[in-house]
Amino acid sequence: MNESREPLVHMFETHGGRYLYDVNRNSVIEISEETSNALKNKEMENKGVKMLAENGFLSGKRVTTIVHPENEAVESYMNNKINMIIIQVTQACNLRCRYCPYSGQYDNRSHTNKRMSLEMAKRGIDFLWEHSKDCEEVNLGFYGGEPTLEFNLIKTCMEYAKIKFEGKNVKFSITTNGTALTNEMIEYFYDNNVILMISLDGPKEIHDKNRVFADNSGSFEAVMANVRKIKSSYPDFFHKILFNVVADPENDYSCTSNFLSGNEVIKDSVINSSEVNMFYRKEDIEISEDFCIKKGYELFKLFLSKLGRFDQKKVSPLVSVNYSFLEKMYNEQLRTVEALPDRYHHGGPCIPGAQRLFMSVDGTFYPCERVSEESEAVKIGHIDTGIDIEKVKILLNIGKLTENACKNCWAIRYCSLCLVSCDNLKELSAAQKSKYCKNVKADVGNRLKDICVLKDIGINFHNY
Amino acid sequence: MERVGLVYPYNRKFTPFLRYGSLRKDFRELRLAAPSGWGMAGKDASRADDGYYIGLSVASDFQSELKGCDTVIFCDYSLPLDFEKHIYTKIEQSMHEKKNIICMLKLEKETERKIRTICAYEGIEFICYGDEPDTNYLEEYKPEADLKIKTINTPVIFVLGVGESTNKFDLQLALRDYYLESGYRVSQVGTRKYCEYAGFHSFPGFMLDNSISEADKVFCFNNFIKRIEESENPDIFIIGVPGGIIPINDILFQDFGMLAYQVSCAVRPDVCILSLYYNQYDHNLFRDVNNSVKHKFGYEIDCFNISNIKLDMAYSIQKRKMSFLNVDYRCCDEAANTINLPDRPVFNISNGHDAEKISEFTQGLLEKYAEIALVNEA
């Protein structure tokens, strides 16, 4: 530990004040203009600066060893606490969405007609059974391609899992484009409390821009017809459906927002919003100024609603998650501590395979469904050989790739980079990972600013 | 002994009874069954706690295991389980087949009455350890006059944990076995509600009764221990304290260690064992924890145990509830071996060897203290 090094802090300003985020203490402090200037000029004898130092702030301590705190327990998690397996029942899909990871625009596999055999699917479920002894409940997910094209296989798997896990709660989930849902499927999913995640990007003109059938026709009407059917026949099931909305930067943000909060069928449903996946993408996406302005305006309305000065119902569901992030950061993460530990790892990686173990049609294991199936770097095993513990440890400890940068990074506690940021399909790349550092720091910095501004104008984060 | 017993739903809460105590000697044959979804069917019983090999296999078909056994032990369990579907129906099956029933579960009064009535009618034995008799503890244990903490003259060993599920029950049973086999008279109060099954006292329910003041609980507990001392006249007293001694964080606060504090106010230990969750600790942690205990409770920790249970912090915070996973016992050996504290040894009760070592260590300390004969407070 070298206490004589520069304080590990991040200084920032808002319209109303100046602040210092002290990484060691994990605290944000409002400081005067004079103290702020003195810190910038490294005037350590300044009264305000000395006062901070005397009270345990401004430490120059850095993490000495980058290692994930769960590193030594990886094998135990893999043996006893795999919470979920996601089974890729098919690689076939009836849509050809333009930003789909399998569309050719990403470094990933292309659409194929490969399907999983029942025997392989059962082995996947058996694997979960073998490795989830300490889980209070387990989750079985079905993924594609378009998984509902293999409804009979899904049904057989679910019946098998219910028997296999007798005495333990099994939750089922399916990620679907929603176009191929039949009455039989809906009834079965309803009876078995299946969590459906349906992809829907917005109104017809936006949804159909990207989500198209093989003949290039839009899929909006097919999805909405099924959604209406569920809502009218199984209203309580409808409220459990998650709508996954991909906010394409090339689309009109306000238009999507208005649709989600105003459409008679969709409004009041649970929306899971995400932006187009930047990882593994062959070409970068330009985010237009218009998109940023409109998103910013929706955030503004969200914050106003929290002050009681705007109707909450008119706030875009696309941005409501942003406030949840702030609440979580304020209430769970920004807790004052003594100092950074000697052994630490930046935030971001979950234990690969423990949360959402993904098994492809041929039985290959991946940390989750979001990684590229073309990548050798992220394969963590196979149903025939089990999970490669050493590989999991490498993927868990991606901070080692950028060890020096991480040790000196003020955002080390709030970093969100996981293995996909480093994956160049052949290996984990420090250079590739470093490209995302700027964005992470901007995001963390903005969240800190948002918290300070919102608290300053009277928002109470304690109602969490 | 010709009895054949079946334990259901077998899980890690019952494993200490297989490793220590006389249960295995009480039955000619012991069978274990667990719901098939718990992932243990066909495995050795040690799969439940990932400790050393036991040599009993776990079955999942309760009905077929029931045949040929004469007693069914319904044990406590840590995983969620539908009582009506998975326990009560099995109790009914057992009664139907005229099997004796030992129940370690807390039953609803009406359910217990119903089972007791049927068992009496069928002429089968029903013993339920999960419930305490209705006693007015305040009346029974709190003296009306002369309010003072009475000194316990017997050497006392405390078994504490930083949290729940830290192998405390293994430690308590291991110590009991050792001292009984060494010829000592042992009095003991344990961390669970069914310790009577192992031959000692359960932790008294009044300590968790919200209608009794904290100070009254201290006096009651002191008297409770004193009464046992007076009636059993032991050579040694082992007290297991349920729960944890400290809040883990702002979310996982586990009663802020109130119970441990109250017990510590009521009784002063001569030897204290603290059990920790599995983790990679540095030396400072042991120093800091010892200081915390010293200043909060007024005594020092004599030795540590690293349990083979890990707190799943991320999941626990997400669910607002403590969640754990087992770690292979050999990992705890590695973790314990990296710690080299000059005056406070670190043990691993789950490895099969340290049960004796930790007991010998406590005995050594007590023998050393015995050389100093205190006249005051005696």
UniProtKB/TrEMBL annotation, chain A:
Keyword list, A-Z: 4Fe-4S, Iron, Iron-sulfur, Metal-binding, S-adenosyl-L-methionine
UniProt-recorded Gene Ontology molecular function terms: 4 iron, 4 sulfur cluster binding; metal ion binding; oxidoreductase activity
UniProt xrefs under InterPro entries: Aldolase_TIM, Cys-rich_pep_rSAM_mat_CcpM, MoaA_NifB_PqqE_Fe-S-bd_CS, rSAM, rSAM_sf, Sulphatase_maturase_rSAM
Family: Belongs to the radical SAM superfamily. Anaerobic sulfatase-maturating enzyme family.
Cofactor(s) needed for function: [4Fe-4S] cluster
Ranges of residues in domain Radical SAM core: 77-311
Domain of life: Bacteria
Protein name (record): Radical SAM core domain-containing protein
TrEMBL record, chain B:
Cross-referenced InterPro entries: CHP04066_peptide_maturation, P-loop_NTPase
Gene3D superfamilies found in the cross-reference section: P-loop containing nucleotide triphosphate hydrolases
Protein name per UniProt: Peptide maturation system protein (TIGR04066 family)
Organism the protein comes from: Ruminiclostridium sufflavum DSM 19573
